[in-house]
TrEMBL record:
Residues 97-282 form the Malic enzyme N-terminal domain. PROSITE patterns: MALIC_ENZYMES (PS00331). (S)-malate binds at residues 437, 481. This is Malic enzyme. It holds the Pfam family malic. PANTHER family: MALIC ENZYME-RELATED, NAD-DEPENDENT MALIC ENZYME, MITOCHONDRIAL. Its cofactor is Mn(2+); Mg(2+). InterPro entries: Aminoacid_DH-like_N_sf, Malic_enzyme_CS, Malic_N_dom, Malic_N_dom_sf, Malic_NAD-bd, Malic_OxRdtase, NAD(P)-bd_dom_sf.
C-alpha cells in the first residue's frame, strides 16, 4: 500500500472526529492513535489508554486468527477485521516492514512477507467459495456496490454513492452466474469481486480507495437461494436476453462515464455470456475477463515452463482440454494467440493443435448449434475422426497421444488411472493440469498422477495441494492460481492508462510470468513461482504490459520511463 505523507493524512482526517474516526474502516487505527491524534480527533474516552503500535496490533490480531479452528471461521474473522480497519487487515496478511510505493511517485521499497502464503487460501479459493455459499447467512456489513436489473436508471447514482467523489482505477464486476465452480450464487458474487480486489492490493499494490467491487443482481436460478427467506438478492429468476444485455451495457457505459480512466475486470459470468460480453467491449474499453484470459495466461505460463523441460515446441504440442467452458476456452484461446504471435501460423492453423471435449464428448462440427461461439473455432471436422469411433476422453487420448492434458471440467476424478497411464505410454514427460476448483472438484490428485506415471508427469493444479513424496523426496506442486497474473496485468493497465488490453499485452504477461518458473533452473521444482513472490512478479508483468502498450500505441499516460531509465 502507498503510504500518504503525514500532512496529507492530517488533511484527510481533520474532517472527521470522535466516533466518525474509529468507525471508519479506512482511518481507524485501533489502539495506535498517539496522544496528539487523540486530542486532535477528540478520541479521549473512546479508545483504551495504552497505545499499541501497528506491529503490536498485528501480533494480537494474528493470535485471534489462529484461535479459529475451521477455515470458514478464519475467513469470517478476517472479513470482520477488514470492515474495522483496512490498514490492519492488509498488514496482518502481508506484514510489510517497509512500504512499497508505485511508480511514478517513488521507487520500490524492500518487502518482507510472513503470513501471505498461509492466509491466501483463506481469503481466496477454496475458502472464499464457502463464504459465498453462506453469504446471506453470514452477512454483517454491506461492502461493495449492489446494482439490480430492476433499477437500471439508478446505476449512475449508485456508483456515485459508492465512490463519494473519489477517482476509481480498477473495477471488478460479476453477475454471479458461475462462481468458482459452485454455479449460480446470485448476489453473493459481491464477495468474489471484493476478493479479487483484495488480491489486486496484496499482489499488485493497487490502493483500496481506488477500487470498486460491483455485483450485477440479475436474479438467480438457484432454487435453494430463491427459497431462502434470508437471501439478500432479488427473489426472481435470472434475467436473460435483451433486458440482461441492456443492463450490462448500461453498467459499462455508466461506469466509463463516471470513472473514465477505470479498468473493468469481468468475473464469473456464465458460459453463454462471458465470451460475448468480453468480445463486445474489448475493442472499445480497457477490460479483461479473468476466467477466460487470466486462466489462459497462467496456464500457458506453466505450459511454457513444462515445454522447456520436456523439449517440446509450443507450436508442435498436441493438447487435449477436458471441459470447454469459459476457463477451458480461455486457455485454448491463449495458446492459439501465443502460437500466432510467436510464429507465422494463422489462428485457424494453430487451433488444430488443440482437441476440446465437453459434455457431448469431442467437439466436432456436426454438433452445430450445441457449440458456443467460443467453442466453434476448436471443433474438429467430422471426417478427421474415425467413423463410429467413441468421442470420450480415454478414446481421444488413445487416438491423439497428447503431450498435454488439461482439466477444466469440474468433474471430480475424471482423469482416471487408465487415461493417465495411456497418455504416459506415448509421451515421456506427460503434462497433466487438473485445474478445476475448489479442491473437491479436481480431475485427479497430483499424488496419483505422479504414481501412475512413475514420477515422470509435469503437474500443475487449480487449487493448493500438499507436496508429493516419492523415493524419500518431496516435490512441490505448482498451483495455476490466477493471482500470479491478473494483479500484474491490472497494475500495468492502470499505470499505462492503456486504451485497450491487447492479445500482445497478454502474451507479454505470460512470458514475464513463465520466466519466473523455478523449474527453469531445476526441473524438480514447481512450474510456477510461489505466491510469496507474487508482488515482485506483478511488477515484472506490469512492466511487460506497459512496454507493449507503449509499443502498440495504446498507452495514454505521459512520461512513461523508457528502457534503462527508472523513476525516482
Amino acid at each position: 500500500m502507498v503510504q500518504l505523507l503525514p500532512e496529507i493524512q492530517a488533511s484527510l482526517l481533520i474532517k472527521a472526529q470522535g466516533k466518525e474516526v474509529i468507525t471508519s474502516t479506512r482511518f481507524n487505527k485501533g489502539s495506535a492513535f498517539t496522544e496528539e491524534e487523540r486530542r486532535l480527533f477528540k478520541l479521549h474516552g473512546l479508545v483504551p489508554p495504552n497505545i499499541h503500535t501497528l506491529d503490536e496490533q498485528v501480533y494480537r490480531t494474528y493470535q485471534q486468527y489462529k484461535g479459529y479452528e475451521d477455515d470458514l471461521g478464519k475467513n469470517t474473522f478476517l472479513a470482520s477485521m477488514k470492515a474495522q480497519s483496512e490498514v490492519l487487515y492488509y498488514k496482518v496478511i502481508l506484514h510489510l516492514r517497509t512500504v512499497i510505493a508505485v511508480w511514478p511517485q517513488c521507487s520500490l521499497g524492500q518487502l518482507v512477507q510472513t503470513h501471505l502464503k498461509e492466509i491466501f487460501s483463506i481469503i481466496y479459493t477454496p475458502t472464499e467459495g464457502d463464504a459465498i455459499l453462506n453469504y446471506s447467512r453470514l452477512f454483517r456489513k454491506a461492502e461493495g456496490c449492489f446494482l439490480n436489473i430492476n433499477d437500471q436508471d439508478g446505476i449512475e447514482e449508485s456508483l456515485f454513492n459508492f465512490a463519494s467523489g473519489q477517482d476509481i482505477d480498477y473495477i471488478v464486476v460479476s453477475d454471479g452466474e458461475q462462481i468458482l465452480g459452485l454455479g449460480d450464487q446470485g448476489v453473493g458474487a459481491i464477495l468474489i469481486s471484493i476478493a479479487k480486489l483484495v488480491l489486486s492490493t496484496l499482489c499488485g499494490g493497487i490502493h483500496p480507495s481506488r477500487q470498486l467491487p460491483v455485483v450485477l443482481d440479475c436474479g438467480t436460478d438457484n432454487e435453494t437461494l430463491l427459497k431462502d427467506d434470508l437471501y439478500l438478492g432479488l427473489h426472481q429468476s435470472r434475467a436473460r436476453g435483451e433486458n440482461y444485455d441492456q443492463f450490462v451495457d448500461k453498467f459499462v457505459k455508466t461506469a466509463r462515464k463516471v470513472f473514465p480512466r477505470a479498468y473493468i475486470h469481468f468475473e464469473d459470468f456464465g458460459l453463454n455470456n462471458a465470451r460475448r460480453i468480453l468480445d463486445r467491449f474489448r475493442c472499445h474499453v480497457p477490460c479483461f475477463n479473468d476466467d477466460i484470459q487470466g486462466t489462459g495466461c497462467v496456464c500457458l505460463a506453466a505450459l511454457l515452463a513444462a515445454f522447456h523441460i520436456s523439449d517440446i515446441k509450443l507450436e508442435d504440442a498436441r493438447i487435449v482440454i477436458y471441459g470447454s467452458g469459459s476457463a477451458g476456452m480461455g486457455i485454448a484461446d491463449q495458446i492459439v494467440d501465443a502460437i500466432a504471435t510467436e510464429t507465422n501460423q494463422s489462428k485457424a492453423e494453430a487451433s488444430k493443435r488443440i482437441w476440446c471435449l465437453d459434455k457431448p464428448g469431442l467437439l466436432v462440427r456436426s454438433l452445430g448449434n450445441q457449440l458456443t461461439s467460443a467453442q466453434a473455432p476448436f471443433a474438429r471436422e467430422d471426417d478427421e475422426w474415425p467413423r463410429g469411433k467413441a468421442t470420450d476422453l480415454l478414446t481421444v487420448v488413445q487416438e491423439v497421444n497428447p503431450h498435454v492434458l488439461i482439466g477444466t471440467s469440474t468433474k471430480p476424478k475424471a482423469f482416471t488411472e487408465d487415461i493417465i497411464r495411456e497418455m504416459a505410454k506415448h509421451v515421456f514427460r506427460p503434462i497433466v493440469f487438473p485445474l478445476s476448483n475448489p479442491t473437491r472438484l479436481h480431475e485427479a490428485c497430483p499424488k496419483d498422477i505422479n504414481h501412475w506415471t512413475n514420477g515422470r508427469a509435469l503437474i500443475a493444479t487449480g487449487s493448493p495441494f500438499p507436496p508429493v513424496e516419492r523415493h524419500g523426496m518431496k516435490y512441490e506442486i505448482a498451483e495455476c492460481n490466477n493471482s500470479t497474473c491478473f494483479p500484474g496485468i491490472g497494475l500495468g493497465v492502470v499505470l499505462s492508462r492503456t486504451r485497450l488490453v491487447s492479445n500482445k499485452m497478454l502474451v507479454a504477461a505470460v512470458k514475464a510470468l513463465a520466466s519466473r518458473s523455478p523449474a527453469l533452473q531445476d526441473p524438480s521444482q514447481p512450474l510456477l513461482p510461489d505466491v510469496e513472490d507474487v508482488r515482485e512478479i506483478s511488477v515484472d508483468i506490469a512492466r511487460a504490459v506497459i512496454r507493449t502498450a507503449v509499443q502498440e500505441g495504446y498507452a495514454q499516460e505521459k512520461n512513461i520511463p523508457r528502457e534503462g531509465k527508472r523513476a525516482g
